[in-house]
Amino acid sequence: MEKSSKALKAGTWSILGLLILLTYVPFVLMIVISFRNNGQIFTHFWSLPDPWIWRNYADVYKEISRNIFNSVTVSTIATAGVIFLSSLSGYVFGRLRFPGKEAIYYLILSLMMVPGILTIIPLFIQVTGYHLENTWYALILPWVAGGQVFGIILCRTFIGSLPGELFECARMDGASEFTSYFRIALPLILPVLITLAVINIVGNYNDFIWPLLVINSDEKQMVTVVLNSIGQKSGVNVTQYGLRMAGYIMSSLPLLILFSFGMKYYISGVTSGAVKG
Q1: pLDDT at residue 1 greater than cutoff 70
Q2: Is residue 36, in this structure, part of any structural domain at all?
Q3: Domain of 90: which CATH number?
Q4: In a domain, 223, yes or no
Q5: Which pTM was predicted?
Q6: Residue 140: closest CA among 211, 232, 239
Q7: Where does it reside (predicted)?
Q8: Residue 168 resides in a domain
Q9: How many structural domains comprise the chain?
Q10: Which residues in 125-158 are b (16+ Cβ under 10 Å) and which e?
């Protein structure tokens, strides 16, 4: 019985190890292809680069460095707006009492049932009506508004679960509501806010459709849209896949850095959410 149990456990771990290995195969191939040219890719696909073409990264950096900066900047600004407004709204819904609070909250909650793709045309008409096309406002404002629903629900849930005695003591000491929000609520829900920030930055950074619709200038464009044309020369219907893979890797570096610094708080926020659920 003990031997069969050990064999079952060994078989399970072997299958899991194989699945993990298969998961990393596309990433390894992307890295290897990024150091090759089309000749090497089409003739010896499974071999290592010979020679290693490091120039791919230098060429790609010249093409997309500005667009990476655009994506990081716009995503960060939009995420800061989402965190501030959703945490403030979450405090209002979680700690204050006013007529119609639950009705308004459930109206906000119902917005989660509306697919985002259905709002693209009305949102585009609104943005063009305000003459915001080809500006970063056309990206920041919709991203801030779009992140509010989930952010308010998340912040309201956690702020509402905090001990009410903390806020009562603050009021007795003469603290205003904004002081209670800033000095008590925000520090206590910091892991949740970092989780919300990671989710929004990743979502905004990877957005392709909306920047493609509202941004026309290459200098203001996001990196996800520019990557679609990396490795293509005008008048030549050939894609340099090595350059494109190098672009994919280089554009993913900001997200890797984000996860390396925020993973501890991200896991803490997700875990605490699971425990509360």
Answers
A1: no
A2: no
A3: 1.10.3720.10
A4: yes
A5: 0.86
A6: 211
A7: Cell membrane
A8: yes
A9: 1
A10: eebeeeebeebbebbbbbbbebbbbbbbbbbbbb
